[in-house]
């Protein structure tokens, strides 16, 4: 891209600033706007400081009576993502820019964004205040983690001199009315990935246990995150299964996937990593079937120990639903850490023998004792951990 800039990130924000770049003018019912490509570093320079500091409330949020804080966890994920080999932000970041900060050359199809001076000649709108972000603040924050020397251009839609009601309307269309992609569908698409990754392995195991007759999870998993036509009794989503399993496989699935895409592989885990991520060795050795066999044996033991609770699907029961499943998966890591020897797969009988130490009965697995959500999940995990292991933490032995 042939871009012109009169300043860089080391200049004082009170110094005159401008950048110029090719653009396309687009006419739509809402009004005209410009579509362009801007390098990430320059985009970070010109966007509002409240987005950069991740504090405060945006004007459009106040106008609409809503509050949207930047999700720090999401930002951390994006900072890792932007440095992966196949990182991509295909949709536009949407910006609103005051007319006094723009200059469009229709003959050359070039748009200039610049700081604005007051009547006294002082900078009134500095380079950090040129563009208000209507959509894309998480992407911009994530791009601040881009490694030095990496190129990452961002396509932007620039609305000039848009009034606040129109900003609020556009914001609502983009952020409130759009259909979110279900996580389960995202994980399902890993089936088509060529490179190995923790996500693909966890997806394959979910599919295998859902398809296998005799599996306690047979036809229990909502592959795409919603009920499968023709099925009854689906109690968890694929994303619930995959994310619970990933906690035993990888400290950072995004980094692992990126390494495989680059033709490399993750380093050998330390002893502490092996205890925390109990299926890490299986995954790195390509022994996904051993992970599947372990999960299968464990849940067969669960089904045998509490058959009525596991089969109950009605309202008020929780063992085979999300909070119960996640609590059981957390317990699996502790159980495997103490039962496995030299990478073997514990048998259903060994898991069952362990679970018989619990005093919980089938009728105990109800939402009045284990509330829906993370609270019930944690209580189930702590209750079983104390009954089965006492004061011991198997992962620290």
List keywords for this structure.
alpha+beta, about 400 residues
The total number of structural domains is 2
Task: Name the overall outline.
Answer: elongated
Radius of gyration: 26 Å
In terms of DSSP E residues, the strand content is 5-15%
Largest sheet entry? 8 strands, mixed
Number of helices: 17
Return the average pLDDT rounded to an integer: 88
Spans with pLDDT under 50 lasting ≥5 residues?
4-10, 49-56
Describe this structure in a few short sentences.
With 397 residues, the chain is of the alpha+beta class. It folds into 2 domains: 4-175, no CATH class; 183-396, no CATH class.
Structure description:
The chain has 397 residues and is of the alpha+beta class. The protein folds into two domains: 4-175, no CATH class; 183-396, no CATH class. Helix content is 41%, strand content 14%. The chain has 17 helices and twelve strands. Strands 1, 2, 3, 4, 5, 6, 9 and 10 form an eight-stranded mixed sheet that branches. The protein has a two-stranded antiparallel ribbon with strand order 7-8. A two-stranded parallel ribbon has the order 11-12. A hairpin with a 4-residue loop joins strand 5 (102-105) and strand 6. Helix 4 (72-81) packs across helix 5, helix 8 (198-211) crosses helix 13 (288-305) and helix 13 (288-305) packs across helix 16 (348-355). The longest helix is centred in the C-terminal third of the chain and has 18 residues, at 288-305. The N and C termini lie far apart (57 Å). Mean pLDDT is 88; it is low at 4-10 and 49-56.
């Amino acid at each position: 891209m042939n871009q012109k800039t009169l300043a860089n990130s080391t200049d004082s924000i009170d110094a005159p600033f401008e950048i110029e770049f090719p653009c396309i003018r687009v006419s739509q019912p809402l009004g005209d706007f410009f579509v362009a490509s801007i390098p990430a570093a320059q985009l970070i320079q010109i966007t509002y400081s409240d987005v950069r500091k991740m504090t405060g409330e945006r004007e459009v949020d106040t106008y609409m009576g809503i509050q949207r804080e930047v999700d720090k966890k999401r930002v951390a994920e994006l900072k890792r993502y932007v440095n992966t080999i196949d990182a991509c932000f295909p949709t536009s970041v949407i910006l609103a820019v005051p007319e006094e900060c723009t200059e469009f050359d229709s003959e050359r199809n070039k748009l200039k964004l610049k700081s604005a001076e007051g009547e006294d000649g002082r900078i009134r709108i500095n380079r950090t205040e040129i563009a208000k972000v209507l959509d894309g603040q998480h992407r911009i924050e994530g791009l601040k983690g881009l490694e030095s020397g990496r190129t990452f251009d961002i396509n932007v839609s620039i609305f000039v001199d848009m009034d606040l009601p129109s900003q609020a309307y556009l914001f609502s269309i983009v952020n409130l009315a759009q259909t979110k992609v279900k996580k389960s569908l995202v994980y399902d698409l890993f089936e088509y990935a060529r490179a190995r990754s923790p996500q693909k392995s966890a997806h394959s195991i979910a599919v295998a246990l859902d398809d296998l007759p005799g599996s306690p999870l047979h036809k229990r998993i909502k592959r795409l995150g919603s009920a499968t036509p023709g099925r009854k009794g689906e109690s968890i989503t694929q994303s619930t299964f995959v994310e619970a399993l990933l906690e035993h496989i990888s400290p950072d699935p995004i980094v692992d996937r990126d390494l495989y895409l680059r033709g490399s592989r993750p380093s050998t885990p330390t002893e502490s990593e092996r205890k925390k991520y109990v299926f890490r060795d299986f995954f790195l050795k390509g022994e996904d079937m051993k992970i599947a066999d372990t999960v299968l044996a464990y849940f067969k033991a669960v089904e045998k120990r509490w058959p009525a609770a596991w089969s109950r699907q009605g309202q008020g029961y929780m063992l085979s639903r999300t909070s119960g499943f996640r609590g059981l998966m957390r317990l699996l890591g502790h159980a495997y850490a103490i039962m496995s020897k030299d990478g073997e797969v514990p048998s259903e009988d060994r898991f069952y023998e362990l679970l018989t130490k619990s005093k919980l009965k089938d009728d105990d697995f109800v939402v009045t004792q284990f509330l829906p959500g993370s609270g019930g999940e944690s209580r189930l995990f702590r209750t079983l951990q104390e009954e089965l292991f006492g004061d011991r933490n198997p992962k620290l032995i």
